[in-house]
Design brief:
The chain has 33 helices and 28 strands. The protein has 1017 residues and is an alpha+beta fold.
């Protein structure tokens, strides 16, 4: 079937189809979602179990171990990390990258946890979080000068109710809420004198404060509900509650013997400040398939409405704005795409002339619009990857049009009429062009099939390039011939003017004849160049994935575990004072921080896919700082890091840019695994000491922290029984005295405020007071000092116990200094680790984490699928040429692109990483494409001139010289905007393709004919 002939015979139909495709493409483009990078699955869930008062060792033994072991039974689990610390167990489950449907797996995790819950100690509370992938891309800060935390929370609730109605909003969460309590403070001695106990008072409160249906009665023809009153309407009413003992005639009211007041939990469990002022943060997440830019505009409209509604003093503004980042990113890349299109179009007109330039150039907008239409139907959005894919495809897709128009012109020059020339050229090129397009697409298949996060992100390149090249092939066989008939004019009898290409072709012809006469010399020169490029390649720095250029810096601050939140707050306030004094943008021409938000005792809402908020901990804080631009990021990082290092020796401060989707938050990490924590700790200190000797390793730390003190109350069973006490009564007395206990709830509107009873002793508790703490015996109705039934001693314990797949694991990590790569530090320490491991003993091992692990996993996932890509390419080549020799010639040209790649990366001072690796794969597809069209022409020419094969090879080379050179020019020139304006993420890939293709083109034009000469003549 000749598609071109059908198109020529049905011009109106094809014209209508093109117009419809353009219209639907424009419509699809407007409806496409926008994002910075393609979304990827967060294959993780966590099981958080609270076990109040238990030490890390007890939590590990009684909770974490049981949960880990039953979760291990799930086949889809990749690995399990766990953290056991005082009173809490956190088990994080990572799902295998091969899994794409996560809901059944998460449901299975819940069922497994439900199975093990009966085996957990009493008093534990289990929560499964399977929504770790929800991103709150827009964070709003709410502050209110003169407003109490409760009043601010009421306003935040009203704002949340309005924001959740936004069409593109999925969730709205509030961070920084201060918890209220109704406190009942009592004196044990005073209660004992009156014949009362904490237990008896608690029973009276719970029996009085009821909210229970009383049934209903019939009144004539109606049934009326009865509602017994009893719940406390005010604190005064609570204070009037009669708590007299049963054997007493005196009326004793709760307020007479206790102090009742309403207050916030002090110290607070979590704190949030906006630009140093107390406030709340509202996080807004995007609905699946929504448009983050549209959501941002809807939120902005709501902000303006609320600012007009609420009185002066209430301020609502952004503290994180992914929508603005995405809008700028998409606009920048669209600008790069437009620049690339203009450059390619200009190249076409300059080198092909007006008429031929119009024919070839028409393919570009038509293909882009059709690609947008198909992408929209597949549910794909606009982001850096999809737009960069179009830029990559630009040079390749015009190749089809160039080759087709060139062939049509040659046919016309031979004397054929325009329609006959067009049909004949299409008949010759339909299969070769399809093969070259398919082989180029197949080169990207490994990224699409890679079972890794990077595969999900970069897999879109395969889809977009595939859509663009197939669309280009179809349009080259339909629209291009129709335009060629209309615009291209060739006079067979008229001598053509000698142009630049003709002069270049003449020089190329002479060079090629020389090469064909000395084929072995050519091969030797190319081999030497290739070996030299491989040697030079080893000197190129390796950076797996660059950090984000988003104008945002985050600081994770961690004091020793066990640090009180008030101490953490004091440290953070000093850091905020330094930010105000030295880092604000308005005070520096170099740029700086424009706004910031602080989260103490908890992480921020998940504002980026690369950020995972930790579980609440009073010793930790997170600061999110918006900066003027990426150039200011490094200044902020350096100055803030130096301030923390100089002023807080016990603070672990990790201050850095965000990690991109596939990058690692910790560039260098060494995981140490073993049984004995003390021995592991000694090994860990050795690793830290070794890292300190490596230049460029900074902020060296471990994830276990400094061992801390613990008070152990050892009960004597004999003394306890003689005193008429139980272990439970002693534990309850300790908890009530030190922390208080919740006895009921005070109801106010739709809020339930816990009523907490606590002893006045807890306010001034010392070691001496603890020993004399009265413990009330229900059996004997007397109070006994704690020292009478227990011994109190001090011991040391690990602040937390971390495990990976059931084994205790300590991780040593570090950040990087300027001009230092993670690979350099890893290469330095790895031989030392190999040597030292031999002396650690059986059961003690190490693994490399960070960039080393991520790069191995991501590139390994691609490499695993490269054989399949290669096999498909070989099959296509064999099918095209019906030969083994010609595919071998094509495959032998692929590695030679490395010659230009090494030179380009070194000359430009760029690094090699995942994106440059992607560029190598792209380059191989283009080289294959050029080799196919050249070999196909050699076959046609040798068939025409069988008696003089060398002339036939030269003629074929000259025939394909202009299309191949133009493809190289359009591809390289089209990638210049991506090189210049694509940022640090895309520069290595653009440099790899540009320089690799420049060298590969020259080599292909000489090496392919020379190999053909060696293989066939």
């Amino acid at each position: 079937m000749n598609i071109t002939k059908i198109a020529i015979n049905n011009k109106p139909l094809f014209a209508a189809l093109l117009v419809a495709a353009v219209f639907m493409g424009i419509t699809g483009y407007n409806a496409m979602s926008r994002d910075d990078m393609p979304p990827f699955l967060i294959r993780a869930a966590s099981v958080v179990t609270t076990f109040p008062g238990a030490s890390p060792a007890r939590v590990e033994e009684l909770v974490t171990d049981k949960i880990e072991k039953i979760i291990q039974e799930i086949p889809e689990v990749d690995y399990i990390n766990s953290e056991s610390r005082t009173g809490i167990s956190i088990v994080t489950i990572m799902i295998k990258d091969s899994e794409t449907v996560l809901r059944p797996i998460f449901d299975n995790i819940r069922r497994k946890v439900e199975q093990v819950e009966p085996d957990l100690p009493s008093g534990t509370s289990v929560r499964v979080d399977d929504e770790m992938g929800d991103v709150f891309g827009i964070l709003l800060g709410l502050v209110g000068d003169g407003y109490s935390p409760s009043e601010l929370k009421d306003i935040a609730d009203e704002i949340r109710d309005g924001l959740i109605k936004i069409p593109d909003a999925a969730k709205v969460e509030i961070a920084g809420e201060q918890e209220e309590r109704v406190f009942i403070e009592y004196d044990d001695a005073k209660l004992a004198q009156l014949g009362l106990s904490k237990k008896s008072v608690e029973q009276v409160i719970t029996q009085t404060n009821i909210l229970f249906p009383g049934g209903d009665i019939r009144i004539e023809d109606e049934r009326v509900i009865l509602e017994p009153t009893g719940s406390f309407e005010s604190l005064e009413e609570l204070g009037k509650t009669i708590i007299s003992p049963d054997n007493s005639d005196d009326i004793i009211r709760l307020g007479d013997v206790t102090t009742i007041y309403r207050a916030y939990v002090d110290p607070a469990k979590t704190l949030v400040r906006i630009n140093g002022e107390p406030g709340l943060v509202l996080g807004i997440s995007l609905k699946k398939g929504g448009n983050i830019i549209t959501l941002g505009k809807q939120v902005e409209q709501k902000i303006n409405e609320y600012l007009e509604t609420y009185p002066i003093g209430i301020d609502l503004f952004r503290v994180a704005s992914q929508d603005q980042v995405v809008e700028k990113s998409v606009d920048d890349f669209l600008s790069n795409l437009i620049q690339s299109v203009v450059i390619v179009l200009a190249t076409m007109f300059i080198f092909l002339g007006l008429r031929t330039g119009v024919v070839v150039s028409a393919l570009i907008p038509a293909t882009i619009v059709v690609t947008f239409f198909v992408m929209a139907k597949l549910g794909m959005g606009l982001n850096k990857v999809s737009l960069a894919s179009l830029i990559i495809a630009l040079g390749m897709l015009v190749d089809n049009a160039i080759v087709m128009s060139e062939a049509i012109m040659v046919k016309m020059e031979s004397g054929l009429k325009s329609v006959e020339a067009t049909i004949a050229a299409a008949g010759e090129l339909m299969v070769p062009l399809l093969t070259s397009s398919l082989t180029t697409i197949a080169a990207f298949l490994a990224f699409y099939l890679a079972e890794s996060t990077m595969g999900e992100i970069m897999g879109q390149i395969f889809v977009v390039v595939g859509i663009a090249l197939i669309s280009s092939w179809i349009l080259s066989l339909t629209i291009i011939p129709l335009l060629a008939i209309r615009f291209i004019r060739v006079d067979p009898g008229k001598k053509q003017k000698t142009g630049m290409f003709d002069r270049l072709a003449a020089s190329y012809s002479n060079l090629l004849r020389t090469g064909l006469r000395r084929p072995k010399s050519v091969c030797l020169i190319i081999a030497v160049l290739f070996i030299g490029s491989v040697a030079a390649f080893t000197r190129i720095p390796f950076v797996f994935f660059p950090q984000s250029e988003r104008p945002l810096v985050s600081a994770n601050l961690e004091l020793p575990l066990g640090t009180d939140i008030q101490r953490t707050d004091a440290v953070v306030k000093e850091i905020e004072a330094f930010i105000k004094k030295s880092l604000l943008a308005k005070d520096s021409k170099e740029g700086g921080i424009t706004s910031w938000s602080t989260y103490i005792g908890e992480g921020a809402p998940k504002y980026d896919l690369g950020y995972t908020p930790p579980e609440s901990s009073p010793n930790a804080a997170h600061i999110l700082m918006n900066t003027t631009d990426d150039a200011a990021n490094q200044r902020v990082i350096d100055l803030l890091d130096r301030f923390c290092f100089d002023n807080f020796p016990d603070l672990t401060a990790t201050i850095d840019r965000l990690a991109e989707g596939g990058g690692s938050a910790t560039p260098v990490a060494v995981r140490l695994t073993g049984k004995d924590p003390e021995k592991l700790s000694r090994i860990m200190e050795q690793v830290k000491a070794r890292l300190t000797k490596i230049p460029g390793a900074r902020n060296i730390t471990d994830d276990w922290g400094v061992w801390g003190k613990k008070l152990v109350v050892t009960l004597d069973n004999t003394r306890t029984r003689l005193a008429g006490l139980t272990n439970q009564e002693v534990a309850t007395a300790l908890q009530t005295a030190l922390s208080g206990s919740t006895v009921d709830y005070f109801r106010e509107g739709d809020k339930e405020i816990p009523i907490v009873m606590r002893s006045r002793l807890g306010e001034t508790m010392t070691m001496e007071r603890l020993e004399t703490l009265p413990v009330f015996s229900q059996a004997k109705k007397v109070s006994v000092p704690l020292k009478q039934v227990a011994d109190i001693g001090v011991t040391w314990q690990a602040p937390k116990i971390l495990r990976r797949d059931l084994y205790k694991t300590m991780t040593v990590s570090c950040n990087l200094g300027k001009n230092v790569t993670a690979k350099e530090i890893t290469d330095e320490i790895k031989p030392w680790l190999e040597k030292e491991q031999q002396g650690w003993g059986a059961g003690y091992t190490y693994e490399l984490g960070g960039d080393a692990e991520n790069s191995s996993k991501a590139m390994g996932a691609v490499a695993d699928n490269l054989p399949l890509s290669g096999f498909i390419i070989v099959l296509l080549l064999i099918a095209q040429f019906n030969s083994f020799k010609k595919p071998s010639i094509v495959l032998m040209t692929i590695p030679l692109g490395l010659i230009g790649v090494s030179a380009g990366l070194i000359l430009c001072g760029a690094t090699f990483g995942f994106m440059a690796f992607l560029g190598l794969i792209s380059l191989s597809g283009i080289v294959i494409n050029n080799a196919i069209v050249l070999l196909d022409r050699i076959k046609l020419e040798t068939d025409l001139i069988p008696d003089n094969p060398l002339d036939a090879i030269v003629n074929a080379g000259v025939q394909r010289f202009r299309p191949i050179l133009l493809t190289t020019a359009t591809t390289t020139f089209g990638l210049v905007p991506l090189w210049v304006g694509g940022g640090i993420l895309w520069q290595p890939m653009a440099i790899t393709i540009i320089f690799g293709l420049l060298f590969a083109t020259v080599i292909t034009l000489i090496f392919v004919p020379v190999l053909y000469r060696l293989f066939y003549l």
